[in-house]
Write a structure and sequence with these properties.
With 913 residues, the chain is mainly alpha-helical. Helix content is 64%, strand content 6%. Helix 20 packs antiparallel against helix 21 (528-544). The chain is globular and about 100 Å long.
């Protein structure tokens, strides 16, 4: 393909930029429109697009990474320094970007090489490219594509070598995963951080758009610049770099001053960020459609005021290519709810960023980021006109309990001004309320004294005597029955405390019996708030035993009563919301669990020192739900925060912290970090052992990590002990879970009879405590498939694995066992000779494993998927591709399970075979 000369390129470059940013249907319409106006120019553009269309069909930045595609142009195979060019990735205003691989043997890996267009090579072009290399070298930020090398070839070709970012453009990433508004704002925070970093180094991006902002396989934002970044000091130094027709911009995202050749400042990038944020939140461009010509786009940018984002959901707007409901569905909500979320602060923030006048916009990206942060934390934002009403509304949102109490006082004062009669009525109401509060305070005082007496008794009885905890609790029951025989309210309160202690010790049946008696006492005492507390605790116990039909009505009734109670009862409400979060999580409704945990934390926002433990436990429940929803980074942050706060309170070695370490290990396990998970579980066991026998679930979790590491003989006694403890305690939920996970150990030591017995018992037990379709059922199917494989029953194993995948895909929680199931299925199909199915499932396993890494650099799940892919390659006769897959798997396994694990040993043998 002959390259255009400089004059032709000046005409074609901006058109090529626009065309490449369009989806294929819109690109065809764009080319047809251009052909009507200038047929010759359209033909030239079509030639340049031909290579790009091929790259588009294979997805951006993916054409040569796996070596599947032949070079699309004559530069393929060309060497630039130590790099060998492989295939084109894209075109920009001043050059082309190619995938390349280092070929000097120093390290392996694919990079992106950016070449200045050959028609522009000359002294000034080379100097300009070297200057861009110097700029990019200063931009070291986790969300900016890293510059690896820069130089000029012997033939005068300037080049930059950058990280090859494999990912999706940010808008497609958000829509494909149906991220909600809060998640999109969190991702946008990373974009703002990258741009702010560039601005701090006097670099304005000038061409911010979705194709320059990718989200990689770990969910990490990467900012790209395939044009030339401009330094702010260039204008101040009087250096003119931008030539006519070579503006590094895309009309759909360009600021008005760019289109008018005005000064480019940090506010220019703010405008582009406003367009991007409008697109991410509302699902459409603020002023133009995807098929508009460049002239129409520029006219709209200069002349048409963008509608408010929320208004764009009320009816047709500029550029609407899908219905409001469809766009809302892509954001995990309805059009009405999305309208409400965007209305107000977000509308005003984006409108300010999109101001036609640069002076009216945010002058820095940091100012834009600060307003978005203030919106997310319910504080007043600068983009909205200040007023007493506005600030009061924000105050009420942040401090609901305090403000509600204050409003009662304020309402009484205002009512006093309306007349003597109203004043008297309010006074009587206030007096009644005061009496009610006095009675409530007296009741609470009596509960406190009763609790103190009970604790004093337990300490005296247990001091220097060989009483176990359960013996002390049994003695406490006898005391409260006799001491409070005629006083049902404190008796109910104390019974609930003793029942909670039994719950902590995993004596569920004993706890349930006491709570039923406490509920009867609360009903006899006619104390609705005490009744709510006891019923929420009882509902939690029901849920833990799988009796969801009993748990849910109790929770609903208690929470309804508490919503009608005074703001002073927010702590009780928070406890019930936390209990419901745990129950619905066990039932498999993860989103509802997240919502309740978040509401509990909100109710505890102004909690005093005595309620900090409940707040931290609620945060742990929130993190548990985040794990199930696949938000690993958020969950890890919340677990660490809770552990740090407990430690700061001097409670770093308590049972709740042991549970937090266990949950952190669970998170690490689900992210494929087996060695790190083992350490967390070990820490949990160390803390737990200080208070008596280690909890069965902790012992089981630790044992299962030992199995993954090939230490099966160490794991078996731990599993046996955990099962015996769970059975002795009547633990109907954790017993079946331990059987499901632990049976694998007996399969591995070839005790297939015991393995089968355990799995049969697990299936019966799970059916009694979990709803149909729960992800644990899929995990059980995987364990049973492992038994089938040990029996060399491939067809049955294949059937079970397909069923497991269907269950795990349908479940609301993100269970990584689907990755193991896909990897196992690929191996089974490869052994059965179904190489098409094996290849498909191996590729799916690899893709899902990469998506589930959640920011971690390596993953055991990915290692297993790559090992399976290598076996499929070998069966096809693709020996080198197989070894490449196994080498990559070896890196993953060494980092996550170590050199001595069975998986590591297997791929090492496969590489040498």
């Amino acid at each position: 393909m002959p390259l255009p000369d400089a004059a032709q390129w000046r005409r074609l470059s901006p058109l090529l930029d626009e065309a490449l940013d369009l989806e294929p249907p819109a690109r065809s319409a764009y080319l047809a429109d251009l052909r009507r106006r200038d047929a010759a120019l359209a033909d030239e553009l079509a030639v340049l697009l031909s290579g790009a269309l091929h790259a588009d069909a294979k997805r951006f930045l993916a054409c040569s990474v796996d070596g599947d595609d032949a070079p699309a142009a004559s530069l393929a195979g060309t060497r630039i320094g130590p790099y060998c060019i492989e295939c084109p990735l894209g075109e920009g205003g001043t050059g082309a970007v190619w995938a390349a691989r280092r070929s000097d043997g120093r390290f392996e890996g694919t990079v992106a090489i950016k070449l200045l267009h050959l028609s522009l090579v000359g002294r000034t072009g080379a100097l300009r490219f070297e200057r861009e290399g110097a700029i990019l070298a200063r931009l070291t930020h986790p969300h900016i594509a890293r510059l690896l090398d820069a130089g000029v070839t012997d033939h005068g070709q300037p080049y930059l070598v950058l990280d090859l970012v494999q990912g999706e453009r940010i808008d497609h990433y958000c829509d494909s995963r149906r991220l909600d508004v809060e998640q999109r704002l969190a991702l946008f925070d990373d974009v703002l951080a990258a741009v702010a970093h560039a601005h701090s180094h006097l670099v304005v991006h000038r061409d911010l758009k979705p194709t320059n902002i990718l989200v990689d396989t770990h969910g990490k934002v990467k900012l790209l610049d395939f044009g030339i970044a401009k330094m702010l000091e260039e204008r101040s130094a009087g250096v003119t770099v931008t030539a006519e027709g070579q503006r590094a911009l895309t009309p759909q995202y360009a600021a008005p001053e760019q289109l008018q050749d005005g000064p480019v400042t940090t506010a220019t990038d703010v405008y582009s960020l406003g367009v991007l944020l409008y697109l991410l939140l509302a699902g459409q461009h603020p002023t133009s459609s995807g098929t508009a010509s460049s002239v129409e786009v520029m006219r709209a940018t200069l002349e048409r005021p963008p509608p408010l984002m929320s208004a764009s959901l009320a009816g047709p707007g500029a550029g609407v290519e899908s219905s409001a409901e469809e766009r809302a569905a892509d954001r995990g909500t309805s059009a009405a709810r999305l309208h409400g979320q965007l209305r107000g602060d977000l509308d005003n923030i984006v409108a300010r960023a999109l101001s036609k006048d640069p002076a009216q916009r945010y002058q820095t990206v940091a100012a834009l980021a600060e307003d978005l942060h203030r919106h997310r934390t319910h504080q007043p934002v600068s983009a909205r006109a200040d007023s007493w009403i506005y600030r009061s509304a924000k105050l009420m949102r942040r401090h609901r309990g305090m403000v509600a109490a204050s409003l009662v006082v304020a309402a009484s004062v205002v009512a006093g001004l309306t007349g003597t009669l109203t004043q008297a009525q309010r006074a009587r109401a206030a007096a009644a309320q005061a009496l009610q509060e006095r009675d409530r305070a007296r009741t609470q005082l009596s509960y406190t004294r009763a609790s103190g007496e009970l604790i004093n008794f337990l300490l005296q009885e247990g001091f220097d005597k060989p009483f176990s905890t359960t013996e002390l609790l049994a003695r406490a029951e006898q005391v409260l029955d006799s001491q409070f025989a005629n006083d049902p309210a404190p008796r109910a309160h104390l019974r609930s405390i003793v029942a909670e202690m039994y719950q902590v010790a995993s004596f569920g049946e004993k706890s349930e019996t006491l709570l039923l008696r406490a509920r009867a006492d609360a009903l006899a005492a006619s104390d609705p708030l005490l009744l709510s507390t006891v019923e929420c605790q009882l509902a939690y116990q029901y849920g833990n035993n799988g009796s969801f039909d009993k748990a849910v009505p109790l929770l609903e009734g208690a929470i309804a009563r508490l919503h009608k109670a005074s703001p002073a009862e927010q702590i009780t409400l928070a406890g019930c919301l936390h209990a419901r979060s745990e129950v619905v999580s066990l039932h498999g409704d993860v989103q509802a669990a997240f919502d309740d945990a978040a509401s509990a934390l909100d109710a505890l926002r102004d909690a005093g020192p005595g309620d900090r433990s409940l707040a931290l436990i609620a945060r742990s429940s929130l993190a548990n739900a985040e794990v199930e929803l696949g938000r690993m980074a958020d969950a890890a942050r919340d677990y660490r925060r809770a552990i740090d706060e407990f430690t700061a309170m001097g409670r770093g070695s308590t049972r709740p912290v042991a549970l937090l370490h266990n949950n952190m290990g669970w998170l690490l396990s689900r992210s494929g970090q087996t060695l790190a998970a083992l350490e967390s579980f070990q820490r949990a066991m160390e803390i737990s052992s200080r208070f008596g026998p280690v909890e069965p679930v902790l012992e089981g979790n630790y044992a299962n990590r030992l199995i993954e590491l090939g230490r099966t003989q160490e794991a078996i006694p731990l599993i046996e002990h955990a099962l015996a403890t769970a059975k002795a305690r009547g633990d109907r939920r954790n017993g079946p879970l331990l059987l499901t996970q632990g049976a694998r150990a007996w399969c591995l030591v070839n005790d297939l009879k015991r393995c089968a017995e355990m799995l049969a018992a697990a299936r019966s037990g799970l059916a009694a405590v979990l709803p149909p379709g729960h992800s644990m059922e899929g995990q059980l199917e995987v364990s049973e498939a492992q038994l089938d494989l040990a029996r060399v029953d491939l067809p049955r194993a294949r059937s079970r694995l397909n069923h497991a995948i269907a269950i795990l895909d349908a479940a609301s929680e993100k269970n990584p066992y689907q990755i193991r199931a896909l990897s196992m299925l690929a191996r089974v199909e490869q052994q059965m000779g179904d190489l098409a199915g094996a290849g498909l499932h191996a590729d799916q396993a690899v893709a899902r494993a990469r998506a589930a890494m959640a920011g971690f650099p390596h993953s055991e799940w990915l290692g297993g998927a790559l090992a399976a892919r290598g076996l499929v390659h070998r069966a096809r006769g693709e020996t080198e591709a197989a070894r490449d897959a196994w080498r990559e798997a070896l890196v993953e396994f060494r980092a996550t399970v170590g050199d001595t694990a069975p998986a590591t040993k297997e791929v090492r043998q496969l590489i040498g075979s």
